[in-house]
Every structure is written in structure tokens, then in C-alpha cells.
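Loading example: each entry is read as two labelled lines plus one structure line.
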Amino acid sequence: MSDTGYNYRVVRGFAFSALFWLVIGLVVGLWIAFEMFNPALNLTPWLSFGRLRVVHTNGLGLGFGLAAIFAATYYMLQRLTRTPIAFPRLAQAHLYLFNTVIALGALSLFAGMNTTREYGELEWPIDIGVVTFWVMFAINVFGTLIKRQEKQMYISLWYIIAMTVAIAILYIVNNLEIPISLFKSYTIYSGANDANVEWWYGHNVVGFIFTVPILAMFYYFLPKVSNLPIYSHRLSIVSFWSLNFAYLWTGAHHLMLSPLPEWLQTVAMGFSLFMIAPSWGSVVNGYYTLNGNWDQMRTNYLVKFFIAGITFYGLQTLQGPLQGLRTLSAFFHYTDWVPGHVHMGTMGWVTMIISASFYYMIPRIYDREIYSVKLANIHFWLMMVGQIVWTSAMWIAGIQQGAMWKATNPDGSLMYNFLDTVASLYPYYQLRFGAGVVFFIGILVFAWNLVMTVRQEQEPGKASPSIL
Amino acid sequence: MGITSKPVVFAILSAAVILIGTTVTVFIPLFMPSTQPVSAYIKPYTAVEQEGRDIYMREGCNNCHTQTVRPLRTEVLRYGEYSKPEEFAYDRPFLWGSKRTGPDLNRVGGKYPDSWHYTHFKRPQGMFEKSNMPPYFWLAKNRLDTSYSFKKTTVLGYGYTEAMVKQQLEEYRAKVADENYPSKESRNVVTPLELRKELTEMDALVAYIQKLGRDVKSMETNQ
């Protein structure tokens, strides 16, 4: 408890859990990136690519992503409602259960307990753990909101409410399964229906973890960091409701030209294009917030994290709807273009905004300054360069791969066998690994900077008056 | 002040907005005939093939291999007839995948003899020097666990009796353990002596791979 009565213990717990899972998830990511051009690294069954890839996606999506979201949510929730967390001991239990479930989840994936439904790979006992900690979280969100001192709910709280509700619906509907044993179950859906349910989930779980709560952070921390109010309240209202409405219609753009009924694909395609509007609503809102104060990009080290982040969000939300078009999907789908797309979002938008939010939040809850602004700037540039090289390498690889799959000889026969296309990608995979190392070093600098912020001796005179 | 000062109303309204698209594009299609067509030609997996499918899932093969051929000229040329929804009626879960680090497998059944797969799984680089597929020789060192086979086929609604499941397992075991099994040599290279008369995980995986697309091929022959 700090002097304001706010509970920051759970915020700290989740923030450092997020850092831990971030480092683990990236190490696994580097490992599988290396396996892509050197299969000798598939040393044991549990180190083989097929098992590790899901450890990477779940470790970063659920481990790092959710922990960072819980940390930022518990912080924003208390500040924006001017109310301490409603049930602090429940929040602490949430922290312990969360880390237990993520650790068990990672181990179960290493062991091959994998439902194979993307981003929902965890087996049923782990699913029950996830649902349980989500309910604990929801009780605290709504408990605190009901007890709140501040009447009006700020935009960030809307996004937190939407995430809390949506993830519950998505996770439960998608993971309805019939257990065979403690370690194995079968989904209740079959064939084309299963694909449809799964990509409704797969697309929206990314939306409501990697977009919605990150926007909550953006709308809260950018004004805090820059001391500027959000440009347009009306624009944020329109963006919020249209995003929530349209997101759920778009899952089938992952299934273009698959055996799914064509009308579902076409509806998804239409709504995907529509999604550009609400996404860019937030982008425009962010840019105009800085109107007349763009010098802060130079003078305020955190502003550039937020503006770079929202820029990649803007690019991401243009690229996504375009590659979801049937004709473009025919070329790009199943190629390395798609991991390029995903990683612009995760490395360029999600991690960028979370980093900056932590740089703002952690010094404040410990009542001190950040250890080193210089290191934060180094971290920024390493992430930026790493991400751009990483994603560009995969986009070029994807274009080449797509073109080689399609290439025909004058007589109409295929120009390349599949292996030719694989072997031609190795230089890009090597470059991607190098870029991943650069990004990872950036993350190590980030973690070091935060750990040193916490561990440094408080300099007299730098501390806030409340401590003195 | 409106709904931004009423959190519970706000949450209910959010849920309602989220459920509109969900209902139209997910809940309603669940019950439409177009998402669950059936065909007399498409047969459920045998107990052995289902066990092989579960190993395919356990090893995350779907991370690198798709199982949907799209109706595109070069794709049909490369893999075969494009995929139809009725082929997947028994697939729980679907294994269409989302990335082709390796080739599509929806039409791979019957393309190569069993021996090809035993040799390839053992060490893909032995067959294709530049392949980046992990080796799976160790699958042949694991005895196939069939203790849940009957329960699995029951939950999946394949309609087999326990005796039928036992018979399917025994028939496949007898086939691969037979002296005259055409792929005997390659199987023996990977399978340890003490497991040669039994079913291994690799046997089941090969059985599953050989099932993929086979029903569609027989449908084409019949037509």
C-alpha cells in the first residue's frame, strides 16, 4: 500500500511477471527462429519446432501479454476510479494463480499436450485455470468500478470493460471440449464449423488482448506522459463502439478460399475493410493529441514510444484488411508474410506501448525516477531496428515464397518443387534470427533498466515530498 | 452522464454489441447444412489412424503443414484436387493449419509407400538435404498407447464397438509386423527389435498420413 491507499503490490507483481515471461518467450522465439534454418537444434522431442512454437506464442501472448495487461489494468483502474482495488487479497491470489497456470501451461505444451487450435492450444485442465483467474480479475474490475469515487469512466476503462467481457465469451465458447483423460480432450465442433469457431476466437483473442487493452494503455498513458488531453472525446466514442461491433465479424478472413461457405468469407472481408475506420480513429486521435507539441518527440523520451507504437498499429490495421482480401490472401496466405504481419503488431505496437507504460508506471509506484533515460532510448532504438528488419525480412520472404509457389513454365507446369522454395528462404530466416537477437538485446536493456530502477538507492532530493 | 457512469450497463451493452457479429457469423452457421455437409464416401478414421492423428497434434505438425488445398490452378497442380467441406466431417479438431513451412498434406495419402514415410520421418535431411523438418526417429521407439482408443472413437462418434476397435488395432499390427509387409525393411531400420511385433507411434502416424485424402481419391475413381 502506498500513502494514497492504492494497492501497488499486485501491480508490481504482475509487471515483473510480465518481464519474466517476456524474456522466456523471446528465448524460445530465438530458438525456433534458429531451427527454421538449422534443424539440428531439434535436439529432443520437447525442443522440436512443433512443440516449441506454441510455447512461444502462448508464453508471449498469455504469459507476457496478459501479465502486462493485468499490471497496467490494476494501476489504471485504481487511478481512474480514485479507488483502491476492491478485493486486494483476491488480486494477490489472482497473481499467484496466474503464474502457476502459465508455468503449468508452458510445461504441458513442452510435453505435447496441445489441442492444436491456434492461440487456444492449452488442454482442458489449464483452460479451467485460465477461466478461474479471469473470473477473479473480472470480480476486481467490476467491484472496483462499482465502488468508484470518480463518477465518470474514462475511455481506458471502457476498453478494459470490453476486454473483460469479450475474452470471457471467446475463451469459453472456443474451448468447449470433451475430456478423454486428464491430458487429452476433443473439441465439440467438427470440420468447417470448428475452423469457423476457432478463427472467430483466434482473430478476436488477438484483438481483445493485443488491441483493446493496449489502446486502454495508450489512451491513459499518452496524455499522462505528454501532459496533453486526448484530441477528441467524440472520436474515441465512435472508434470504441465501432471497433467492438465490427471486430467479431472478421475471423473468417483467416479462412479465405478454404472449404468454409463463401458468404462467411465475403462478410469477413467486408468487415475487415471497415475495421480500418475505427482503428485509424485511434491513430488520428493519437496524432492530433500531439498537435502543436511535436517537439515532445525529441524532448520527452516516452512520447516517441507511444507515437511509434500507434504508427505501427496504424500500419498493422491497414495491412491486415488488405491481406485479408480474397485475391491477396490467395498469394500471401500460408507464406512467411503472415508472421511478418503478426510481429509488426506484437513487436512494434504491443511491446512498444507496454514498455512505455511500464517506464511511466514503475518509477511512480516506487516513488522514484527511472534509472536511466539513456538506456530507455537505447532500448527504444534496438526494438525499433530489430522489429523493422525482422518484419521486412519476412515480408520479402513471403512475396518470394508466394511467387515461387505460383510460378509456372511456358507449358503450364510448375517451375519449382516445394523444396526449392524452402531452401531459397534460408537467408531471410538467418536475417530474421539476427534481427530477433537485436530486439532481444533491447528487451534485456529494458528489463535491466526497470530492475535497476527498483534496486537503486534513493537519491536524497530526488524523492517526492511525500516520502521525505 | 450517460452510460459512461454506469459500469454494469456499459458491460451488458458491450457484450450485446460483441454478440451480434458472433451470432451471425458463428452461432447461426453452426446449425446450417452448408457448414456440416456429409458424403457417403468419407469414412471416419480407424482407431489406428485416430491415434496417429493425435500424435500429429501432439507434435504440432499443424504448425508447419496445412491440410487444405485451395481452388487455385497452381495449388491443384502441386497438391491435387482442392478440398471440400465434407472431407472434414469427422475432424475434431480441424487441422487446416495457417502456415506452409512444409507442403500441404491434404492429398498426401497414397502418394508414397509406407517405406518412404518411415525413412523420411527418421531423418528428413537424409532424403532431402535442404529440408528443415525436425527428425522423428524417436516415434518408432515409443510403443503406441491404445488404452484410450475405444473411448476416443466413442467420444468422436465413429460408431465402433470395443471389439471393432480391438480388431482394427490388431489388424494393423499384424499388417506391419508381417514378414511380407512391403515396407518391412525401412520400418525395421527405425523400429527397435523388441517393438517390431508391436504397434509404435510411428506406425500410427504413417497410417494417419496415408489416410489423408484417400477417400476423395476413391470418390474420384468411382465417379
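The mean pLDDT of chain B is 96.
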